[in-house]
Write a structure and sequence with these properties.
Length: 302
């Protein structure tokens, strides 16, 4: 079979030569020019579409060996410090990332989760490679939704616009007022959930009702009961059937009872992971490796 180029050459050359307008060689040049112009126009159109694409929320999940962890590895620590001091805007713009929403790290599980908004998710791979984080992490990119987005979606999917749960007030427990609980240090924890697709609120109407009820409930009494001072973030993936909530708590052992009473443990396998913000990681690794005064040689600072 003829290629597209050969077919176009045959057609247009025949037209131009048949009409006596140009020589064979000149006809071929005109066709090549036409093809190039078409490709350039197509590329420009594609680029314009990419630039105007709506940014979506994506999770960058990283897992690394304990030997490569910046807590244990001085060279990785230097790389992470350099990232913290670099103006990332040019690199973000290059790969279509409009914002970095959150950056959490666990020194216990040797994991990280960064949440970004991007118009070009396929380029997240190149972004993490050029940034350097792919050098010491196995990475995956997961489409995310906020908890509020989940509620909007499942309400429409299951026709629950008029659903009104019977919400009972959660009685305040004296447990939250135990001696020492108010003065205990608040720490950052990730609640990671994974569920079967059949239990996912996107697919399961009863789970959807539970999640909507959670969204409409005043959680403060339950949070007080189990020592949770704030819920920092709530992200969900309908593709991987996972969730990650980040909370601050004075009593991490009670996260199990909190998730059971809240109901999220009914449809998720859960784990609780101590987290640190990216800023906390930088402070810690500088102290651990004696890098308090170290600065990278060439870095475009923020």
């Amino acid at each position: 079979m003829k290629s597209l180029k050969q077919s176009l050459l045959a057609i247009f050359s025949g037209v131009f030569i048949g009409k006596g307008l140009v020589s064979t060689a000149r006809a071929q040049l005109l066709v090549y020019a036409s093809i190039i112009a078409s490709v350039v126009s197509s590329a420009g159109s594609s680029s314009a579409q990419s630039a105007s694409a709506e940014p979506t929320l994506w999770g960058i999940y990283g897992v690394h060996n304990r030997h490569d962890c910046p807590v244990n590895n001085r060279e990785t620590a230097k790389e992470v410090i350099e990232i913290s001091m670099t103006d990332l805007q040019p690199l973000m713009k290059k790969y279509g990332i409009t914002s970095i929403e959150d950056m959490y790290h666990s020194g216990l599980e040797h994991t990280l989760v960064w949440v970004v908004k991007t118009a070009r998710p396929h380029d997240l791979e190149e972004f993490t490679i050029e940034l350097g984080v792919a050098r010491w992490n196995d990475l995956k990119f997961v489409p995310e939704r906020t908890f509020a987005d989940v509620i909007t979606d499942i309400t429409a999917l299951h026709g629950l616009e008029d659903f009104k749960p019977v919400i009972e007030s959660v009685p305040f427990s004296a447990k939250s007022g135990l001696a020492g609980s108010n003065s205990a240090e608040t720490t950052l924890w990730g609640i990671y959930g994974a569920h079967n697709r059949h239990d996912c609120p996107v697919n399961n109407r009863e789970t959807a009702k539970e999640v909507i009820e959670t969204s409409m409930t005043d959680l403060q009494p339950l949070m007080n009961k189990y020592g949770i001072t704030s819920i920092e973030d709530m992200y969900h993936s309908g593709l991987e059937h996972t969730l990650v909530w980040v909370v601050k708590t004075t009593r991490p052992h009670d996260l199990e009872e909190f998730t059971i009473e809240l109901g999220v443990a009914r449809w998720n396998d859960l784990k609780f992971v101590p987290e640190r913000t990216f800023a906390d990681v930088i402070t810690d690794v500088r102290a651990l490796h004696g890098l308090e005064d170290w600065e990278p040689e060439a870095v475009t600072k923020k």
